[in-house]
Design goal:
By secondary structure, the protein is of the alpha+beta class. It has one domain. Helix content is about 35%, strand content about 45%. The protein has helices at about 5-15, 15-20, 80-105, and strands at about 20-30, 30-40, 45-60, 65-75. A four-stranded antiparallel β-sheet has the order 1-2-3-4, with no helix packed on it. Helix 1 (about 5-15) packs antiparallel against helix 3 (about 80-105). The longest helix is centred in the last third of the chain and has 22 residues, at about 80-105.
Length: about 110
């Protein structure tokens, strides 16, 4: 099988772009908002960081109190489809190096 090592290499490199694709969402939750930052394919990101801020108001006419809560979470998803892109990308780069070694003149 004849393979162009340069093409295999660049296909491998291109597989890494969706892996590092950033995403940002602001979601309304009961009593507040959640900001979410992701890296990876949108349907299955490998990194998810979120910040939550909720506010609770209480008032009975004569008094008023305001309670705020802020929280955050950070997680790496080891079983995300985004990791498949890394495996495929590395596979193309390895195939590129092997194809280049086969084409090198032996003497």
């Amino acid at each position: 099988m004849l393979a162009n090592p340069r093409a295999l290499y660049w296909i491998g490199v291109l597989c890494f772009f969706p892996f590092f694709r950033p995403g940002y969402d602001r979601l309304a939750i009961p009593g507040g908002v959640e900001d979410r930052f992701t890296l990876g394919v949108p349907a299955s990101p490998w990194l998810v960081a979120s910040w939550t801020e909720t506010t609770q108001e209480r008032g009975d006419g004569s008094s008023f109190s305001l309670t705020r809560h802020a929280g955050h979470s950070f997680r790496v998803e080891p079983l995300a489809w985004s990791w498949l892109l890394v495996v495929v990308g590395v596979g193309f780069i390895v195939a590129s190096r092997r194809a280049k070694a086969r084409q090198a003149p032996r003497g």
